[in-house]
Amino acid sequence: MTILINPASGEPVDEIPDSSPADVARAVQRGREAFRQWRDTTPAERARLLLRLADLVEEHAEELTELEVAETGKPAAVFRDGELPFAVDNLRYFAGAARSLDGTGAGVLSSGYTSALIRRPIGVVGSIAPWNFPFIMGVWKVGPALAAGNAVVIKPAPNTPRSTLRLAELLAEAGGPEHLLQVVTGGAEIGQALVTDPGVDMVGVTGSTATGRAVMRGAVDGLKRVHLELGGKAPALVFEDADLEAMAFGVTMGATYNTGQDCTAATRVYIARSRYAEALEALAATMERVRPGDPWSAETDIGPLISRAHRERVHGFVTRASGRVVLGGKPIEAPGFFYPPTLIADAEQGSEIVQGEVFGPVLVALPFDGEEEAVRLANDTPYGLASSIWSADVARALRVAHQLDVGVTWINDHLPIASEAPHGGVKGSGFGKDMSQEAVHEYSVVRHLMIKHAAPEPKDSFRPA
Ligand code: NAD
To answer: Which end of the chain is more exposed for a tag (fewer CB within 10 A), N or C?
Structure first.
């Protein structure tokens, strides 16, 4: 049994039974049966189911908001008016993507033969999700997998399972084969049971880099396809010609959205030395305006951190940090696990606060001299997920963007995403793309069908034509 705690109050909100390894095995077996039915559906049928699910999610917006807010503490308005409509848009996108799976093609590639390239689903997908965006992460895992014709067994994070459980109920209501989407609950042990179950054909995880490694190791014996969306440590590069007011707003949003518990969060801001002091001042002034507070208040910008233990972890990073704390840096004394926007200047590039994933509203600032150094510092962490460039010079922004080892670069902004655009990283941020047609491709495999259409010939040689 896991007791769910509301991080905004520290009070328990619900109890959820944990699955056993036997429950996982049973879910996978049922998933195999669902897969046999779902894999042969037409793109139109898959699209219809996803569209119905999107409608149901929209109809249950208020209830889903209550579940998500109680477990994560994120501001209700942020979820109801931002994340939930985005998840609905994701589902509608995946419905469309189900009907335009490329790789479906035909041609005469070899004389006398007609070739057809057909995208087929992989089988039963075992998906593992994190706690920072429980509902959206569920949709990012389930949407493309179902669009491609797979069945899914998903394990949400132990402390945030209820919106995913509700998603599975809504899918059952929308139709489709029984057990097409099943949820198992629990922590790492149940995650491993799912990853190593021989009935699971593909595994996906969004989580920390260490978890990604554990999942990949668990998938080795079965040679399963692995989809990894892991940690990040996104840099924001601020050049001397940047609009500092726009930068301060965009980087503050990037650093504090979801209380910094975002794999693409702006965490390191590198500033051209000639404007370092000015940019720091602008950032401190903007970050100070971000209001932590009651998730149900219209005045609140950010909620608490996810748990007491996570707040201790975040604060540990801050207390050990090299450099000086310009803003924040101390837990907020109130019920719940609140932590203020925190700005640290002049940290050492090689130090823990610059290199490690803090996963809180903590931004470190460092100066740089010249484009080359900016690129070198930006690329100098184990991660490679997101980045932003702040400059009025389009050519420079593009030149720098091409040199960054990351999955996404924003120019003069930080954070926006779209259903049509792939989300995923390189290096320690893993591989695998969420959203976009790329995601649907990752949950499918291309097959070649080659049909001889040449007239029969006399069989006097065994050499291939
Ligand atoms: P986590 O790695 O602790 O847990 C993620 C999920 O994996 C949970 O469901 C957990 O129970 C499960 N898990 C943990 N150990 C496991 C194991 N050995 N085998 C199988 N499953 C296991 O991550 P978290 O703390 O829930 O989430 C925060 C992390 O997620 C951060 O590192 C963040 O950057 C990352 N994240 C990445 C993206 C992305 O798209 N790249 C998006 C959101 C979050």
So the answer is: N
229 flagged as catalytic: yes
CA angle 136, 232, 148 (to 5 degrees): 40
pLDDT at residue 104, rounded to an integer: 67
Task: Please state whether beta strands 202-206 and 266-272 pair in parallel, antiparallel, or not at all (unpaired).
Answer: unpaired
- Kindly name the residue from 71, 263, 357, 442 that is annotated as catalytic: 263
Residue 387 exposure: Cα atoms within 13 Å on the Cβ side: 30
Q: Which positions ≥6 away from 461 have C-beta within 8 Å?
A: none
Please, what is the end-to-end C-alpha distance for the chain in angstroms?
A: 65
CA 50 to CA 89: how far, in whole Å?
11
**Are the CB atoms for 87 and 57 separated by under 8 Å?**
yes
State the amino acid at position 85 in one-letter form.
P
Question: Tokens 């910008």, residue?
Answer: 301
| Binding site membership of 214 for ligand 1 (Cβ less than 6 Å) | yes
Residue of the CA atom closest to atom 4 of ligand 1 = 207
Question: pLDDT tens digits for 119-169?
Answer: 999 999 999 999 999 999 999 999 999 999 999 999 999 999 999 999 999
Distance in angstroms (rounded) separating the CA atoms of residues 229 and 199: 22
**What span, in angstroms and rounded, lies between the C-alpha atoms of 23 and 191?**
12
Q: Whose CA is nearest to atom 42 of ligand 1?
A: 263
Decide: 158 in ligand 1 pocket, CB within 6 A. Answer: yes
* From 229, 299, 352, 372, the catalytic residue: 229
Q: What pTM was estimated for this model as a whole?
A: 0.96
Told to judge if 263 belongs to the known catalytic residues of this protein, a careful annotator would answer yes
